[in-house]
User: Fold these one by one.
Assistant:
Number 1:
Amino acid sequence: MCNQTGLISVFFLNELRNSWVQFAFDNVCNVAFGVDPGWLDTNRTKTASNSVNASFVQAFDYAVELTSDRFMSPVPAVWKIKRFLNIGSERKFKEAIAVIDDFAMSKDSTSTALTWFFWLIAGHPQCERLIYGELAAAVKASPTGLPTDFSYDELKKLNYLHAALSESLRLFPPVPINSRLAVADDILPDGTYVGKGWSADYSAYAMARMEKLWGPDCTEFKPERWLNIDGGFQPSDQFKFPVFHSGPRMCLGKDMAYLQIKSIAAAVMYEFEIEVVDGGGDARKMIDPPYTLSLLLKMRGGLPVRMKRRP
Ligand code: HEM
């Protein structure tokens, strides 16, 4: 996977979850987070599990693309007829959904979240130092003393890391826009009328950039906004931070997602220094971040990084 001579090898972050321990034994490697499936096909050695992952990635990307096309279709009757007759793109769509159903749907949002997180951390070296300091202290205090062995309780105590992840999710929510269709006439809490059959969309991405909600420094990456004066994590109101949606249909996997993301970030950052090829998400790049517009907020071209084992 990785090699010490620095040849490029490519990773999709989904795989990283299962196999990061393996590459931890190498010294320096070049990897890419959140790359598109084309990269995967041409650049890596295929194993049985790789091809399962690749077919999932391809199916997911196709389904996302086609769903966007449906949204933007000027004549929705066309895709509806194709779906009814089970032909063309709609038949392929159905096949893609079957592949996705066989796999964990939540994988893509989690890897998208980690991709932006590593990009932002690379652009904010001070935050990287604070996270590493917190991890080093946790390892020192741990009964096992093993760097990769963060228990559930230990992960829960990593307040700064939790704050940095929340800040990254705030600025780059994996689900940037969400929609609802009104089944009956309604009045929103602010008095806005919504008629039956209307769609009501909200954008967690845009909301993160509203001064009214997050203050004049809303576009800045500041994990500290999630901490109280004692350094404890201070959650936000769910309606101000609808990254996992809000209300009764909120994401059921929110805690699981945090746990997954946190354990990977902790383990990788404790073992490695991560150098992002484009320098990472600093204040200048926040003006025009490299995202692609899709149902998920993917990073354009993935995130190629160089990883160096810490001394
Ligand atoms: C960073 C990672 C994740 C993000 C940003 C995220 C975000 C969301 C959002 C926005 C929704 C609402 C979708 C809608 O109704 O329009 C949702 C629903 C849901 N999510 Fe997640 N999710 C993540 C990870 C996970 C994980 C890891 C799991 C499972 C372990 C999961 C399970 C679910 C389920 C079951 C629902 C449907 C809840 C319902 O409709 O009642 N999610 N998620």
Number 2:
Amino acid sequence: MSAALTIDSVSSGYGGAVILREASLAVAEGEIVSLVGKNGMGKSTLLKTIMGFVRPRAGRITLFGADITGVAPHLLAGRGVSYTPQELPLFADLTVEENLRIAVDDRARIRRGVEHMSSYFPFIAQRLKQRAGTLSGGEQKMLLVSRTLMSEPRLLLIDEISEGLQPSMIERLRDVLLAERARAGLSLLLVEQHVSFALALADRYAVLKLGEIVDSGPAKAPEARANVIAHLSV
Ligand SMILES: Nc1ncnc2c1ncn2[C@@H]1O[C@H](COP(=O)(O)OP(=O)(O)OP(=O)(O)O)[C@@H](O)[C@H]1O
């Protein structure tokens, strides 16, 4: 399997603070990797460094074989990667439909995309004219995931999407992301605190501790859950 993403000995940080310390991780094409770790270990920083919001100080990042180390975020758009940050970047005053249109500019694709996403999240078809800011927190997250999927990324980076979601929404989200992987061969790097969701969705987990990947393994191995919980509790 060829790599969708490789992070090779990448260091980065903010001002004088070094956060990522020669972190290395790869996501194969079609693979789902869950990145777990305690608060403040650098998980979001890793995603932001991949996306060029934080400049790498050392190391190399490749996307589908092309070197993207230090490439600015706006230049990454159109290269098949899509990023869902922890903060919800929706336009609160725009309608559901207008928010979805941001992902695609072709009318036929918008129509097909809205239909497809509504098959996953029926509220979308029912609330196309509702302002996004008036949706519930969970619905806003589903709208954001829909918008991201409508851009048909080959690699999706998602930061803590399960936070604040009720169990049935989390299960729905897991099913949707697995369905999209099966349908479109999507690769996924997921930052997650919700261990059950992280392992149920992923092929592989990786643990980030003080800016380094300190453990990784198959997510469905019998010992995976205990390993991850041990890392999160010490
Ligand atoms: N813009 C910033 N400027 C300075 N320091 C920052 C900035 N963003 C994050 N940090 C610091 O970098 C460290 C890693 O933060 P990061 O958000 O990457 O961790 P995380 O593992 O995603 O944590 P959490 O699980 O709490 O979201 C933290 O100490 C944080 O305070």
